[in-house]
Design brief:
It is a single chain. The protein is α+β, with helices and mostly antiparallel strands. The protein has one domain: 2-Layer Sandwich (HIT family, subunit A). It has 6 helices and 14 strands. It has helices spanning about 25, 90-110, 145-150, 195-210, 240, 250-260, and strands at about 1-5, 15, 35-40, 40-50, 65, 70-80, 115-120, 130-135, 160, 165-170, 180-185, 215-220, 230-235, 245. The strands form 2 sheets. The protein has a 10-stranded antiparallel β-sheet with strand order 3-4-6-8-7-12-13-11-10-9. Bound molecules: zinc ion (2 copies).
Length: about 260
């Protein structure tokens, strides 16, 4: 069972998926759907269908809402050896290369209309790969671009700023370290160019360097068509980057087991 649910109290989405946790590149038993050049090697692209698919379960009543949205997910695997890749060992050129491969994928996939909530997150503890999702939810578009607002109001949370780029700590962080690096111009991933991506890779590399610890790096845009880089401490995934919770056991199953044990 894989299902997106909206909590009526916090208005946050949860993805409930039964799939195993762990390095998904190690669990891959499918052939890559395509590959693109990456330095002297290749980035292999795998379409994933286990997390993102329509719900099979109906919940009754108006209070709880679930999504029928399915969206799209793929893994972009750039290192085949498990446990060898660390973000802070990657140079600026490799980062820029990855950013442009991801932006190109978004450009190619745009025509399918999977949704404007896009996140590609690096996986910390295994193979070198980015896990990319494109979703219709969370439905957080309010008309005005939130990212433009965040940049304008970064104030004393600002870390770096030049004519083109602003880096700031999130106003309401979800992790100990929760940093955004965004182009000041309102530009989407699909609309980005090499100059934007180079600038983002440059400050991303510098920030990863001074942070010292390995972090999750996400290239994303959340509904507003304004791309950004997110650096978060610890290991998280693309769903978390979009502000969703991701759990691997469904609450109905847990309740059933506990009811049984209570008897
Ligand atoms: Zn692995
Ligand atoms: Zn904007």
């Amino acid at each position: 069972m894989n299902e997106f649910r909206l909590d009526p109290e916090t208005l946050s989405f949860s993805l409930i998926s039964r799939s195993k946790e762990g390095c998904r590149a190690c669990l891959l038993d499918i052939k890559e759907s395509s590959s693109v050049p990456f330095g002297n090697s290749l980035i292999k692209i795998y379409e994933m269908k286990d997390y993102v698919q329509p719900s099979k379960y109906e919940l009754s009543g108006d209070f709880f809402k679930k999504s029928e949205a399915d969206g799209y997910e793929e893994l972009l695997v750039f290192s085949r050896e498990h446990g060898k890749t660390r973000l802070k060992d990657m140079d600026k050129e490799a980062l820029e290369n990855i950013f442009s491969v991801i932006a190109d994928r978004v450009k190619q996939l745009e025509k399918y209309g999977f949704g404007g909530n896009i996140a590609a997150s690096s996986y910390l503890k295994g193979h070198g790969y980015f896990d990319m999702v494109m979703l219709d939810i969370p439905w957080n578009s309010t008309g005005a671009c939130k990212e433009c607002g965040y940049i304008k109001n970064s104030g004393n949370r600002e870390i770096y700023s030049d004519d083109h780029i602003c880096a700031y700590a999130s106003f309401a962080p979800a992790h100990e370290v929760d940093i955004c690096i965004a182009p000041k111009a309102h530009v989407s991933m699909a609309g980005s160019d090499p100059v934007v991506l180079f600038g983002l890779a440059d400050i991303t590399k510098k920030l990863i360097g001074v942070l010292g610890e390995d972090a999750t790096l996400s290239l994303m845009e959340a509904g507003d068509g304004h791309m950004k880089i997110k650096i978060c401490s610890g290991a998280s995934g693309p769903f978390e980057s979009l502000g969703m919770h991701h759990v691997h056991t469904d609450p109905e199953e847990i309740s059933k087991e506990l009811r049984k044990k209570l008897k």
